[in-house]
Amino acid sequence: MFSEKIMLKSFIDSQNVVRFLGLFLILLWVSVSGCSEKSDKETASTQAPTINLAEGSGSQAEAPKKAVQVVEGAGGEVGVHPDVQQAEKLQREVNIPESVEGKWKAVKILVRNKTDELKSEIKTVPIGSSFQIGDTGIKVTVGPFFPNFVMDQGTYTSMNNQVINPAVQLVVEENGKVLYKGWTFAKYPEMYAFEHDIFALELKDYIPADVS
Known about the structure:
The protein is α+β, with helices and mostly antiparallel strands. The protein is built from two helices and ten strands, in the order ααββββββββββ.
């Protein structure tokens, strides 16, 4: 009986040791996990940039947009065309480069009748000459023509003789009064400041000098 009590006591003691070790390991694991989680949060907070949401911007912050610079009048396919009508106020000069001089002989201008499209017509006009719109008293003088229109601080010109951004200058007069002097673009017909209740003018085609 005495030996059985000793064995029972030893068994209980061993169970207590196991429980103690188990509890110790659990506490150790919790402590290590907590430190690791805290460390991860601190690391994340130091790496993640602070984003301030503007009032009324919603819950999602917009990524910063890169500034896009468009060269004024750059020849080529650009999303934003220079404000030519604003440029007219700066009194730029027209500079016809040698690569373009004498290379183009005529343009085709669509005279669109806004009130009756059936009366619209296309005029083939030699560069530097004029035409009348019916008996309205409106005269249109055409030229110069630039196959690759560009402009800088002081001039309108053509970057080269490649047809990339074709444009022609128009002077529109009515009974001797200048209504409009500016440019019309084949690829950007909406960029056109000449306003008339009945007529609109658009550059539709251009004819090289070596074409008979």
